[in-house]
Design a protein that fits this description.
Protein name: Alpha,alpha-trehalose-phosphate synthase 1
Structural class: alpha/beta
GO cellular component, one term: cytosol
Distance between the termini: 40 Å
Helix content: 40-55%
Number of strands: 17
GO biological process, one term: trehalose biosynthetic process
Number of helices: 18
Family: In the C-terminal section; belongs to the trehalose phosphatase family.
Radius of gyration: 23 Å
Bound molecules: 6-O-phosphono-beta-D-fructofuranose
Strand content: 15-25%
Organism: Mucilaginibacter polytrichastri
């Protein structure tokens, strides 16, 4: 196993998440590795290799053949990654069915429209969390730190604690924690909370998520909650907000790379005489993509003078496309883009350049540095690291970020143009304001946002989480010796 790689007596950190930061794909019978999509993978992906960390997770594809599993395991081992292989039925029930048809919609306030409760999917969720636990137990030693990530693994902290009380367990959730009024609708709400409470330290992106979690715990479980500390018998668990940062230097440096600069020049040349508005999201109803398109439509209706003068460069990264609501959303986006382009396009110009694919990081960087405006309007989002990536890429302190107040990052990037994504008129007006914003104002706002993104970067995030986890462990030890 991977543990042979590391000196057995050195305490280590084991990161566990549903998806590894690297995904495996198969082409012509050969397996290939490429970076995974999503905030967790891109955020932590650049730093997990430091200090002999290990990362356990699903490689993103069903591999049944034992020899293939072995081969992929060996390849991933080189990157300090340990795969947990899921069967197709587990992918359907645990990942698509429970994680993305119960937890994702409820936690993003889409309860009545999208939540689909199924006992079989819940059972699979339990079994797969146990499967992840078995993988952790295979490599964990006493004194190790296990850092569990996100909503797909809510039961894992308790499963690990029951089997190995001698390790430190941190849990961080990358998506919002909803109001108790939403959360308590879930049939298995108590089991989920008890699962999370297996951790010593529980982290969320924002203070509101912490508040919601604490009120759910105090209403649903017979435990004592005082400020942000939960007492369960002899144990105390601490809950706090740790807004996730990005590798700001990586994005700043990338924008200065020669190949990226050349690509950015080409983009600017292509859209000469126009304002370029960029939007980048995973395919997801929580991202407000259709509402954003509506805002653009209203803008074109109300401002005929802007026809041929702006382009929305919209990248939607394929995601969860086997889940029915995602398929439907994709069709609706196709239709809406088609309608708007069909109505407004001229021989030389289209209002929307739409891409349904993931793009290499160099191309993203070129787009970040050439876009006049970045338009990020999720209906609800745990953090939204794209907003921070745009800011980190603007090394000349220009450009305008339009940001939904429902994104966690809006609590930090307060110098963005903040909008309510449900107010389509407001979003449309914000675009007009952004494209007309004087350079001095752009600069004033961007400098403040850049300071924030660079001070509270990913290194800072990992450090404050880990330092706090150590403090909590010490607090627990001193309580036991009293
Ligand atoms: O960042 C939030 C998150 O839900 C991660 O947990 C997840 O890996 C990512 O978005 C992408 O989603 P998925 O893994 O379902 O493709």
């Amino acid at each position: 196993t991977l543990i042979q790689h590391l000196p057995a007596d050195m305490p280590k950190t084991i990161i566990v998440s549903n998806r590894l930061p690297v995904k495996v794909t198969k082409q012509d019978d050969a397996y290939q590795l490429s970076p995974s999509e999503g905030g967790l993978a891109t955020g932590l992906g650049s730093i997990y290799k430091q200090d002999d960390n290990l990362w356990i997770g699903w490689p993103g594809i069903e591999i049944t053949d034992k020899r293939d599993q072995h081969m992929v395991t060996e390849d991933l081992k080189e990157l300090s990654l340990l795969p947990v292989f899921l069967t197709q039925s587990e992918i359907n029930k645990y990942y698509e069915g429970f994680s993305n048809e119960v937890l994702w919609p409820v936690f993003h306030y889409y309860v009545s429209t999208y939540a689909h409760y199924s006992q079989a999917n819940w059972e699979s969720y339990q079994l797969v969390n146990q499967k992840f636990c078995d993988a952790v137990l295979e490599v964990a030693n006493p004194g190790d730190t296990i850092w569990v990530h996100d909503y797909q693994l809510l039961l894992l902290p308790k499963l690990i604690r029951d089997a190995r009380p001698d390790v430190s367990i941190g849990f961080f959730q990358h998506i919002p924690f909803p109001s108790d009024e939403m959360f308590r609708l879930i049939p298995w709400r108590s089991e989920l909370l008890e699962g999370i409470l297996g951790a010593d330290l529980i982290g969320y992106h924002t203070f509101d998520d912490v508040r919601h979690f604490l009120s759910a715990v105090s209403r649903l479980l017979p435990v004592q909650v005082s400020a942000n500390v939960i007492t369960l018998g002899e144990r105390v668990v601490v809950v706090e907000s740790f807004p996730m940062g990005i590798d700001d230097k990586k994005y700043g440096d990338l924008s200065q790379q020669e190949n990226v600069k050349t690509e950015a020049e080409l983009i600017k040349e292509t859209f000469r005489g126009q304002k370029l508005i960029l939007s980048i999201d995973r395919l997801d109803y929580s991202k407000g993509i259709l509402q954003r398109l509506q805002a653009l439509e209203i803008l074109l209706e109300n401002h005929p003078e802007l026809v041929t003068k702006i382009t929305l460069y919209m990248i939607v990264v394929p995601s969860r496309d086997q889940v029915p609501q995602y398929k439907e959303l994709r069709d609706n986006i196709d239709k809406k883009v088609g309608n708007i382009n069909g109505r407004y396009r001229t021989l030389e110009w289209s209002p929307i350049q739409y891409f349904y694919k993931s793009l290499p990081i160099e191309t993203l960087s070129a787009l970040y540095s050439s876009a006049d405006v970045c338009l990020i309007t999720p209906m609800r989002d745990g953090m939204n690291l794209v907003s921070k990536e745009y800011v980190a890429s603007r090394v000349h302190n220009d450009g305008v970020l339009i940001l939904s107040e429902m994104a966690g990052s809006s609590k930090e990037l307060i110098d963005a143009v903040i909008v309510n994504p449900n107010n389509i008129q407001e979003v449309s007006r914000a675009i007009v304001r952004a494209i007309n914003m004087p350079r001095a104002e752009q600069s004033r706002r961007m400098i403040l946002m850049r300071q924030n993104v660079s001070k509270f970067n990913i290194g800072h995030w990992v450090k404050i989480f880990m330092d706090r986890l150590n403090e909590v462990k010490q607090m627990q030890r001193s309580m036991q010796t009293r």
